[in-house]
Amino acid sequence: MPANLPTVTSSPSAATGAKRGRPGYDQQSVLRVAVDVFNKHGYEATSMGILAETLGISKSAIYHHVPSKEELLRLALEEALGGLETVLTLDGATSGAADARLEYVLRGTIAVLVERLPFVTLLLRLRGNTAMEREALARRRAFDRTITALVSAAQQDGTLRTDIAPGTVTRLLFGTINSIVEWYKPGGPLTSQKLADDVISMAFAGLRK
Amino acid sequence: MPANLPTVTSSPSAATGAKRGRPGYDQQSVLRVAVDVFNKHGYEATSMGILAETLGISKSAIYHHVPSKEELLRLALEEALGGLETVLTLDGATSGAADARLEYVLRGTIAVLVERLPFVTLLLRLRGNTAMEREALARRRAFDRTITALVSAAQQDGTLRTDIAPGTVTRLLFGTINSIVEWYKPGGPLTSQKLADDVISMAFAGLRK
Question: Do the Cβ atoms of A207 and B164 come within 8 Å?
């Protein structure tokens, strides 16, 4: 299993923790492993039994940390959506010219995506099969609408081209940004700062010299 | 099932076709329905039994049209990859300035994507679980390398900005283009021609006025 397992004391002498989940795991580390497994096999195809096996603990030990698989999904989606929604509340997103606010929000989105890569990956792969998934997708759409409103405002200000519909601009921008989860390797030669610069340069100024 | 079923004579008097698949289906229409089901439920999760049920014919009737589920996948991927690879062989892709060839190939890619939407969707969702899937992904990577070479040539010609690595440009361009399968509705108000214009305008000239 290539899931990113946290370092876990597997010594059988660590008996004190046996009743309350194995030492080395807390809710956050269980969540992190669960999200990797969800991303690899799909949320629906992953049972609590598979999670327990991957974690090397019993199902009841998982239930010590979280009441259900659904709660793991809820926590994971909150990491992604909460991070993205926070960007919209920051000064750079709420004051200044519309085009500068748009750039600020896009840079913030890329930062959240890179910092919370597995969580955002899970969010982007949701198909809306349950009420919770549909609620998450509705929050994602609300986020997108905020971007579309910023694009529209910047077009009215005369700073952005007006021949592309604001909704199309948003879809193309998020097509570019969301695809980053499919190929970006944090810690590699391309820093998240340069990645954000590249996305903003291509989107705002274009590839042509 | 919201799969795009072809019009099928369901009259029980249509007995002549019973032995050789039901009238109204040929290999191409079986393939089309199969690809919709693969895209909805995942290739691996789809059995020949599920396909037969969706088509309203027996499994043996499917086997009259195709020898295996794997062959359906192979045919579907050929529709997508064959279409994309053909673009690279056309005059506009092989002669002229590198930036013009790049634009030509990107427009051709968008056209194939829109015309063969379910097939390209299937290709883009592959995870490389079988030898055939890995072979398809290798052909996709070869296609991407051709684009990277064109970007690199255009940078050397001085027509494209040089501060973004050619490989990153390709990833961002295909992030934008591939995401079209997630939201584009053929036959809607946004024509495929205008969509291609919008993608090319944003990527080459940028959003800023």
Answer: yes
**Closest-approach residue (CA) in chain B for A208:** B160
Structure confidence at residue A128 (pLDDT): 85
Range of the structural domain that residue B119 is part of: 76-205
The angle subtended at Cα A89 by Cα A83 and Cα A91, nearest 5°, is 120
Residue B183 sits at the chain A interface (C-beta within 8 Å): yes
Q: What is the average per-residue pLDDT within A128-155?
A: 96
Tell me the chain B residues in contact with residue A206 when contact means C-beta distances shorter than 8 Å.
202-206
Yes or no, beta carbons of A209 and B160 under 8 Å apart: yes
Which residue in A164, A195, A198 is closest to B202 by CB distance? A164
pLDDT at B23: 59
Domain end point (choices B67, B86, B108): B67
CA B149 to chain centre: 22
> Among A91, A72, A165, A84, which residue's Cα sits nearest to residue A120?
A84
> By the CB < 8 Å criterion, does A60 face chain B?
no
Count how many domains chain A has. Answer: 2
What single string gives the DSSP state of each residue in A95-147? SS-HHHHHHHHHHHHHHHHHHTHHHHHHHHH----SHHHHHHHHHHHHHHHHH
CATH number at B40 reads 1.10.10.60
What ipTM score was computed for the predicted complex, to two decimals? 0.86
Question: Are residues B156 and B175 both part of a single domain?
Answer: yes
Would you call B161 and A190 a contact, using CB atoms and an 8 Å cutoff? no
Contacts of B180 in chain A (CB under 8 A): 175
- pLDDT tens digits for range A88-131: 999 999 999 999 999 999 999 999 999 999 999 999 998 888 99
**Do B82 and B63 reside in the same domain of the chain?**
no
Distance of CA A141 to the CA centre of its chain: 14
Query: Tokens 């501060």 appear where?
Result: B163
Same-domain status, B53 and B112: no
